[in-house]
Amino acid sequence: MDKFNGEEVLVIAREYIEEIINRFKFGLITSQNEILNNAINKHSFMLPREKAENDPAYKQIIPYAVIKFNDELFMLKRSKEQAEERLHNKLSLGIGGHINPVDYSDKKNNIIINGLLRELSEEVKIPHEFVTRFIGYINDDNTEVGRVHLGALFEIETQDKSIVIKENNMMVGSWETLGNLIKQVEYLETWSKIALDYYLKVEETI
Hints:
By secondary structure, this protein is an alpha+beta fold. It has helices spanning about 20-25, 35-45, 50, 110-125, 180-185, 190-205, and strands at about 10-15, 25-30, 45-50, 60-70, 70-80, 90, 95, 125, 130-140, 150-155, 165, 170-175.
């Protein structure tokens, strides 16, 4: 039985980005954004998720957004009600998910943004306008799960803290300073640790 109910997700064959991801096996990639963007725009396509989850010949493209207000980041704690068992009781700085055919528009290069905004709208309500900024790609080839995913890290900068979680039985949220996040780093999911490391490095340069 197909536990993904025939879902199709956006992927890119590893061969098109292999040179880069072999150089950056773990962490945030910011120096190759244009090359990776062009490769994804040119070579990405939809694949049944059931196949994509089990075949490291493909990387699923996952938009992953960190919500920021001034010097605080929005942290989520996922409950056991969530469908993705690997994330139960994990702390996360990111909101995101798979890109599906519904996210296509007339301009293919908008598909990642479309997927990001759809995922945001499904999980949270941001009452005011916000600024979206692309940061880079998250890669983790050290784990079985990581080998079949490539994260597209975005920052969502809000005007205030009035974020509403739509499925509050699935997760709870809180605003945290970098100092508080460091204290909880062992409980963060891997991609959130990578995102947090980026913000810690930015703070060091200020």
